[in-house]
Write a structure and sequence with these properties.
277 residues; alpha/beta; Helicase, Ruva Protein, domain 3; 2 domains; seven-stranded mixed beta sheet; two-stranded antiparallel ribbon; 10 helices; elongated
């Protein structure tokens, strides 16, 4: 796969173009695209993965932010008239508009600087609505994949993993070294599969409250829960929920956080007590 002339990777877009044929083949095998899938690629770049996906699914849709790459892609794939190129920022893009009779299968080599907010954007759009997203396969910095898949007690466990696992089954697939990209990044990458649940295993009464509880806890992850969540719940309330208030935020499971959030939601919805005049 030769590099297209005249386009240099842009640091501000976090561009590292995948070029290793063996890695590309392995990614496509992992995705296992079908001709009738509604497939969306985020950040096709110079089209190395795009080319292999189009060979199976000529109705591929891509979302590309770098306007200088749009003519490169149109020229390279002129013989695929069903290819749809959306010029825009994936962080602001409404992926729900692409859903037809099939839920979306989303793939992408995501730059580090947008990976976490983009995953949250996709989960909020597709993870909470059954049938919007079938699955997602992303190339990410290895550390981000570790955070997505982390379990309670792990060093990488935090807000990203908890909220991803609220919506999805997270499956790390394989690691990719820097040599698979041009220019080569300074870190290892990894492929991860995210599959939204048809039925959430631990549904919260109010998602916004759950997000607030998790964010507040991990903003003070080195403190005990009693201190980290002091403005949200009391130590006595945590104990009543069967949660040790001396634990740290990284020791609680998703189910624990949902239990705390539901308690907070119930308290916020409680009828105000009568006040004597």
């Amino acid at each position: 796969m030769s590099k297209q002339p005249g386009h240099k990777a842009r640091k501000r877009f976090g561009q590292n173009f995948l070029h290793d044929p063996g890695v590309i083949e392995r990614i496509v095998r992992s995705i296992s695209p079908k001709p009738d899938d509604t497939m969306v690629e985020i950040g096709p770049g110079l089209g190395a993965l795009t080319e292999e996906l189009l060979a199976v699914n000529p109705r591929l849709q891509v979302v590309e932010l770098d306007r200088d790459l749009i003519p490169v892609l149109r020229t390279k794939f002129f013989n695929y008239p069903a290819l749809t190129i959306h010029e825009g920022d994936a962080l602001k893009f409404d992926f729900r508009q692409l859903v037809t009779d099939q839920p979306l299968r989303i793939v992408g080599n995501l730059p580090y600087n947008i990976s976490t907010p983009l995953i949250f954007h996709l989960l909020e759009q597709g993870g909470g609505e059954r049938g919007v997203v079938k699955d997602m396969h992303f190339m990410l910095q290895k550390e981000v994949v570790q955070r997505l898949a982390a379990q309670p007690g792990d060093n990488h466990y935090g807000r990203l993993g908890i909220m991803a696992q609220y919506f999805c089954r997270v499956q790390p697939l394989f690691e990719v070294g820097p040599g698979a990209f041009k220019p080569a990044p300074k870190v290892d990458s990894a492929i991860v599969r995210l599959v939204p649940y048809d039925t959430l295993p631990h549904p919260a009464k109010d998602l916004t409250t759950l997000q607030r509880v998790v964010r507040t806890a991990f903003n003070a992850r080195r403190k005990t829960l009693r201190k980290a969540l002091a403005g949200v719940v009391t130590a006595e309330q945590l104990q009543a929920l069967g949660i040790d208030d001396n634990l740290r935020p990284e020791n609680l499971s998703l189910a624990d956080y949902v239990r705390i959030a539901d308690h907070v939601t119930a308290g916020n919805n409680a009828a105000p007590a009568d006040v004597d005049a």
